[in-house]
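Hey, I'm writing a tutorial for new members on how sequence and structure tokens pair up, and I'd like a real worked example in the thread rather than a made-up one. If someone can provide the structure for the chain below, I'll link this post from the tutorial.
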Amino acid sequence: MPRFPFVPFLLLVIIMASCASGPPPQITPAPSVPLGREAIVDVSLDEAIYLAGRWRYRQVEFFTEQMAQPGFDDSQWAEVDAPATWAAQGLGALTGESALVVYRRQVEVPVAWQGKSVGISAWFNPYASQVFVNGARIEPARKPFAPYADVSTWLRYGEPNTIVVTTLYDGIFEAAETGPPRIGLLTERLVTRVLHEDVTISTEEGDADATIIRPAARHDLPGLILIATGAHGLPEKTTWFDLADDLARQGYFCLALALPVQRPSGVIAAVDYMRSQPWIDPERIVLFGADEGARTAVLAATQDTRIRGVILLSAPQVDEVADLGSRPILLMASRKDRHGFVLEQAQNMAQQVQGPHQVVALPGDGHGTFVFTNAWNAARQALLKWLAEYLPVRR
């Protein structure tokens, strides 16, 4: 009996396996990548079906899998233009409530797209939304920056497809990050390249773990030091990363700082370290403190008058805000955090502030950096608006 030589036989197996798996995904490559930029996969803005417009929708107490199925009867549901704010949809009273809204619509995908890589970008809130295609729940490849997913295998080409989106809490679509909601061919686009570097900062209380998050190939940057405590008062830094990545793409230098002990001397050490970095404008640094980190940020700013301003999230009562002088302060708290007590504290502190100040009531009941998971859009919009006024990026 003849025997196949091993190497040719192995080559034949590889070729057969390659054929069985089908052609490689067809993704339009990005143009040459300039310094400080990187190419990411995203849904095309040119070869796309746009999903903004009329949807059938309903506010529900509980979402069931049947609501995502193509055969579900939504004929009694009302119609609305979405994505949009609750107010624009006639749901203004839901702001700050634990509101869950379900949207459904039909979309026909061209037959010509079959065999190509087709993606969806339709998470109205990149943290607190779900997307379903023909009954299948779709997980985004990124979150929260430009979330998308390859849905090629779930689509019916040349036929109607059922798209379902759920949104919790804020009901706001953040177009600045993702572009309009759409289904389209996957392509590559250029964005600001963001660098992460883990560093150790010496403080009086011991070494502090920190991570630099900054845009590549940029200098003279305004900076933020991000300070928070997590469960049981433990320091945390990773919960800042999504926000810091976003800020870096906007042109900010961020230092996510995990202090061994929440004391202002540790923050001052981090500020000194930050000012020594070649990418930083040393006169344009803001402290951003969450939970007990808010108190530490205020106390550090009272000691270092060069600090440009302070941002406080879910802050306890810190009477020393009165000592910040004319420097601006932003206070953010969820409407229902501890039954509204945390927001009330923020409003009380605002009355003690001498300089420009703003209190932002966020939807939901999230506390500290957990706010970003249920009120990402509202928190991000308020933060960027404040930074544009008091810590603008020099283009």
